[in-house]
Specification:
Number of strands: 13
Largest sheet: 6 strands, antiparallel
Bound molecules: zinc ion
Order of helices and strands: EEEEHHEEHEEHEHHEEEE
Number of helices: 6
Shape: globular
Structural class: alpha+beta
Amino acid sequence: MRSLVMRQHDYRLDGRCVYCRTDMSGYAADEVTDEHIIPRALNGTLVIRNGACAECARLSNKNYEAAALNSDLLVPRRLLELKASRRRGKNQSAPRPLPPVALGDFGMGGGVFDLDLAREDYPQFFSLVVFQPAGLLIGVDRGGDLQNPSFQSFNLGGKSRDSDVTTKHTMINGPFAMMLAKIAYCYATAEWGESFFDAKDIRDLLLGRRNDVYNFVGNTESPERLTTRILHGLYVHRRGEWLTVLVHLFASCHDTKDSSDCHPYEVVVGRAL
Ligand SMILES: [Zn+2]
């Protein structure tokens, strides 16, 4: 197991697109793009410089990343923007509206999400879906259907909840899981290079040639909490025949003191070679 918590880092690959592996030497500058392993909108700091061809970057954005950032990740995105605008002080361009909230304790529907709060009163917490473990790890074909999701909550405010206001979790089946697959694959490739694992299947998934995302993406069954104060953590893990990446999104922001409630995402990136 190799542990690497996430700080600022620029990776450089072999001049081929991380997704389609096309040799990009000779490409014009606007045909090559930096690949942000965790999106900038989530304050990701790991970048593969000139890592993707413009076509693959366009497709990943269109096929899942934009949808994930506008559904499962909308509330944390807006909260991060809010924090950044507070740090910069006033005189900023008009902030984007925060998603409506509800009074009471229902993250997934139930309540009427029409409460409009002042920005300073907006609650700093949100939830992320917890998946069943990846199908490949337990020998079950999970296909592309989301099964029995649960949720864990995060708190960007750092203080315990003193509000009975709830942010809404909006979920679309697929895009968020695909984004996690992308994060894990890009990270493993950037850190280890492709000679360490057979990446063909997950690359097919990311290029839209298969759609069984839940065979690759899940959460760990056993709890794990990073002892870190940084926002996101990633590390590569050898699990039997598989190479996986543990994706601790918002690692430092679990809204619980009980580590047994913390379950990172675990993505199978391929058979270890
Ligand atoms: Zn490409």
